Amino acid sequence: MSGVKLLGINGSPASRRVEWALKIKGVEYEFIEEDLQNKSQLLLESNPVYKKIPVLLHNGKPIAESLVIIEYIDEVFEGPCILPKDPYDRAIARFWAKFLDEKLPAVWKALWSQGEEQEEDKKEAYEVLKVLDNELKDKKFFGGDGIGFVDIAANFVGFWIGIVEEATGVVLVTSEKFPNFCAWRNKYLNCDQVKENMPSREMLLGYFKSRVQAVANGPK
Amino acid sequence: MANDEVILLDFWPSMFGMRLRIALAEKEVKYESKEEDLRNKSPLLLQMNPVHKKIPVLIHNGKPICESIIAVEYIDEVWKDKAPLLPTDPYERAQARFWADYIDKKFFDSGRKIWTTKGEEQEAAKKDFIECLKVLEGALGEKPFFGGDNLGFVDVALIGFYSWFFAYETYGNFSTEAECPKFVTWAKRCMQRDSVAKSLPDQHKVLEFVQTLRKKYGIE
Fold first, then answer.
1. For the structural domain made of A4-76, what CATH number should be given?
2. At the N or C end, where does chain B have fewer CB atoms within 10 A?
3. What does the alpha-carbon distance between residue B84 and residue B153 come to, in Å, rounded to a whole number?
4. Structural domain count of chain B
């Protein structure tokens, strides 16, 4: 059972982050697309605690949680560094990656929120975006002049949010409110690395539009 | 490392603050501890952790590191010559990071719900909590510590919660010793280390603190 396998999902930000890290290091891997309605035995055995993707299998040994996996990839495989070398810079990178992961649900909620709750949910999402906007004030990317660990972790806010906004009609990100964030996002989306490591925009848009339709049609 | 200025912004019952106390003690790092009043946060805290405004914050030569797990990893990287907390093997390191993250994601919330809720919600929280302990017991296996023969990253991440067990057991009306004896054996083994014993508050003091909080929140 040698080699590298990735249990993931094409349209999942967490899964895409890991693939991005593998590509940075030039690692050859086998991608196994999971069906969340019918999880494979391999997934259930490899991640018994959460039963979630992504899971990296390296010579048969499983690692779960996308940020943990990326740090592992950075340590084990040769190639360009993903995390900074200096301990303080590493701590800052880990801080922002964690912030992005923890605040993702608040932003997600606001995108799908309806009725009375929507204003409250949007306020929470704005607070998150404001913090990110402030962090990007004097920087080209979260990683500084070039893309880094945090920019990889930021794939959801950078790529997915815009698509979901288009599908749901909920607008969270405007350049008036978040000029630095928008400037970062424009550069981000035009990066070769991002273009190569994100799923098809049309595919995602179609998927989210059908989810909007399903919500509009009422509970199943 | 001479001429290092290390300050810890802390709050005595915080199991997150305890992690840093233990890590710094293991590494024999001299530091100044500043006790925060969380109802009246100091300008220093607000300046050093503007995003979350929470303790603990490690300030090393004027530079802040926030989020306790990230700070423990920083301490391990900077003061690397003494008492290594993370293993050297990348796969083992990934496992250690995974479990530290699990503790943060699952353990804190279920413990908190035991003393902040009643009735069915409390029963569900108890069940979750004990399940978490059993999962952690499984991860420990037959080793004396999560770190193997010595105190490691996961031990440091987890042991602080033990100072809250008397409070959890009192309000949840259960005995950890009865439900998870292996866990209690591990905890008592950790408590034999000076770095741990000196970093954890007395369990009765924590219970008194929880009593005051419950009165304040009107949970009776």
1. 3.40.30.10
2. C
3. 9
4. 2
